[in-house]
């Protein structure tokens, strides 16, 4: 088996998506922590378009962008599938993955802006969470695809843990039990799954890191 190496950065959801996928598949890999910078030579070489980690090496092959990497992992190692077998269910999973990619940026915008821009991002985040609650988590399901974690759960991985910390930093509370009972039930199930629970960043350390990053971003803008 060709060697698998993952280069990523601490407290970065995109890095953790790939860690979770590799762990769920039972794939041995080496993790290399990189500098949290869009000027890192490795990321400039292998992801010049978006300038961000993670970067996965499988032998001599290199891939970037977390959801692209997850698709590659799924195609390369079929055990413990992240996508359903049924073509319609697979298509719907990819729909929600795209939704997460297209809409999830509003959480980041809420994190690194203030004033009217932040208020708009908070509104957009609430709208996104409402759609997830009402359309994606229908029925009595532990996870988006049913009884086990799949690619959609990993795509929405920013909601558990990361959104909770961002809420504390920004000073807002969005995930209220009366508004999002299904979503909060999923958050609990997701974070209690062994692979996820054992591979989450320390909450206090992440809070300090993200708070400092936000202050740096706001001071430079």
What does this protein look like?
Helix content is 58%, strand content 8%. It is α+β, with helices and mostly antiparallel strands and 221 residues long. It has two domains: 73 residues, Glutaredoxin (3-Layer(aba) Sandwich), CATH 3.40.30.10; 134 residues, Glutathione S-transferase Yfyf (Class Pi), Chain A, domain 2. Strands 2-1-3-4 form a four-stranded mixed sheet. α1 links the parallel β1 and β2. The radius of gyration is 17 Å and the shape is globular. The mean pLDDT is 95.
Order of helices and strands: EHEHEEHHHHHHHHH
Adjacency order of strands in the biggest sheet? 2-1-3-4
In this structure, how is the largest beta sheet organized?
4 strands, mixed
CATH third-tier fold name of the largest domain: Glutathione S-transferase Yfyf (Class Pi), Chain A, domain 2
Structural class: alpha+beta
**Approximately how much helix is present in the residues?**
55-70%
Terminal CA distance: 47 Å
Write a concise synopsis of the structure shown.
This protein is an alpha+beta fold and 221 residues long.
List the helices and strands and how they pair.
Elements: E1 4-8, H1 13-25, E2 30-33, H2 41-46, E3 55-58, E4 61-64, H3 66-76, H4 87-103, H5 105-112, H6 115-136, H7 151-155, H8 159-170, H9 181-192, H10 194-197, H11 203-220
Parallel strand pairs: 1-2
Antiparallel strand pairs: 1-3, 3-4
For this entry, give a set of tags:
221 residues, alpha+beta, Glutaredoxin, Glutathione S-transferase Yfyf (Class Pi), Chain A, domain 2, 2 domains, four-stranded mixed sheet, 11 helices, 4 strands, globular, cytoplasm, Glutathione-S-Trfase_C_sf, EC 2.5.1.18, Thioredoxin-like_sf, glutathione transferase activity
